[in-house]
Every structure is written in C-alpha cells, then in structure tokens.
Here is the input.
Amino acid sequence: EGPGDLKRMAKIGVKRFLIGEALMRRADVEQALKVLLAGANVPQA
Here is the structure.
C-alpha cells in the first residue's frame, strides 16, 4: 500500500488506481496523493 504498489501495477500497464483508505487517514489528502504518485513515477492528470 504505497508508491511501490503503484509502480509495480503501472509497469504491467495499469493506468487507473482505486486509492481510498490510505488517503482518508491523512490530514492533508492532496499532499499525500502527490507524494504517492511522485514516488511511483505515475503521470498526474
């Protein structure tokens, strides 16, 4: 449950991710999402 998971899925062609609980536990959801996507090298829309 983190950037590594997104990175592995992106490598096999997954383009969309369902992310919920991990972000809902964060005080700053926007920042947490940016960190998650940056760590996974997933392009942000």
Observations:
- The chain has one domain: 3-40.
- Residues 3-40 form one domain.
